[in-house]
């Protein structure tokens, strides 16, 4: 089972920094964690076709509720989230039908969507890390 990594551990380690982090890297991590918070709350709306599948729509509502505090999902992610919810519903049906090959295929695709949406702990930690490490090159204008 994968280990869950929270944002608190990603932005600054137990002793106030990473193993070999500079002060700038610690500040970048803190800024990245703060950047994960939305200034204006948004509530994405599901597409009409998703409401036809009760299980998928219930999952949509649960993810929207759970992700609200993290501000990970906005209107731009609505279709990807709807597709993920539909995949999860289809996956459950494939398992009930004892169709293991279909279940495994849907599971792989579903996990890809989950990572892209940031609904896995690893995806959220990776996103915070990426934001922290993304620094503007002060010499970029020299090569234009």
Topology:
Blueprint lengths: L6 H5 L11 H13 L12 H4 L2 H14 L10 H19 L3 H18 L3 H13 L11
Q: Explain this structure to me?
A:
By secondary structure, the chain is an all-alpha fold. Helices cover 60% and strands 0% of the residues. It has 7 helices and no strands. The protein starts with 6 loop residues before the first helix and ends in an 11-residue tail after the last helix.
Please supply descriptive tags for the structure shown above.
144 residues; 7 helices
The radius of gyration is 19 Å
Q: Assembly state here? A: single chain
Counting DSSP E segments of at least 2 residues, the number of strands comes to 0
- Unreliable residue runs: 1-9
In round numbers, the mean pLDDT is 79
Q: What is the molecular shape?
A: globular
Total helical segments: 7
Percent in strands: under 5%
Q: What order do the helices and strands follow?
A: HHHHHHH
Q: Into which percent range does the helicity of residues fall?
A: 55-70%
- Secondary structure category: mainly alpha
In short:
This protein has helices spanning 7-11, 23-35, 48-51, 54-67, 78-96, 100-117, 121-133. The chain is mainly alpha-helical. Mean pLDDT is 79; it is low at 1-9.
């Amino acid at each position: 089972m994968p280990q869950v990594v929270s944002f608190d551990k990603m932005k600054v380690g137990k002793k106030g920094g990473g193993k070999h982090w500079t002060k700038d890297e610690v500040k970048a991590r803190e800024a990245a964690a703060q950047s994960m918070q939305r200034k204006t709350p948004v509530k994405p709306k599901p597409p009409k076709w998703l409401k036809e599948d009760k299980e998928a729509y219930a999952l949509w509502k649960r993810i929207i509720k759970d992700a609200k505090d993290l501000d990970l999902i906005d209107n731009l992610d609505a279709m990807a989230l709807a597709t993920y919810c539909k995949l999860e519903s289809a996956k459950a049906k494939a398992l009930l039908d004892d169709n293991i090959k279909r279940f495994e295929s849907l599971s792989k695709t579903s996990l890809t969507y989950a990572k892209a949406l940031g609904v896995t702990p690893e995806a959220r930690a990776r996103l915070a890390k990426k934001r922290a490490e993304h620094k503007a090159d002060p010499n970029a204008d020299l090569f234009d």
